[in-house]
Amino acid sequence: MAAPSASVNCEEFAEFQLMAAHASRDRVIKNCIAQTSAVVQNLREEREKNLDDLTLLKQLRKEQTKLKWMQSELNVEEVVNDRSWKVFNERCRIHFRPPKTE
After folding, report:
1. How far are the Cα atoms of 30, 69, 70, 98 from residue 74, in angstroms, in the given order?
2. Is residue 60 within 8 Å of residue 43, measured between CB atoms?
3. How far is it, in rounded angstroms, from Cα 30 to Cα 65?
4. Which residues of the chain fall short of a pLDDT of 50?
5. Model's pTM, two decimal places?
6. Left (φ > 0), alpha (ψ -120 to 50) or beta: where does 80 sit?
């Protein structure tokens, strides 16, 4: 993602690069969370049926850890989003004020 230049004005940068990038990353992370949540749910159901299976328990713990990491990544993405909009507003505030989406 390049900074706004003479060929790309602040409005185009905000609408087509910054907003699209944030929405895309948010969508991908949420999709990963949904898929991993489904795997964790399936493993929990299998675990309830077979409490003695240690490999199943290990796999469940592994997937739960992955899910926690993905959820924390969503929080990190929110911070990155806020900071990038702050920088954008500092650099482009005299040229363009983006609409609030939240």
Report:
1. 8, 9, 6, 23
2. yes
3. 16
4. 1, 4, 6-7
5. 0.73
6. alpha
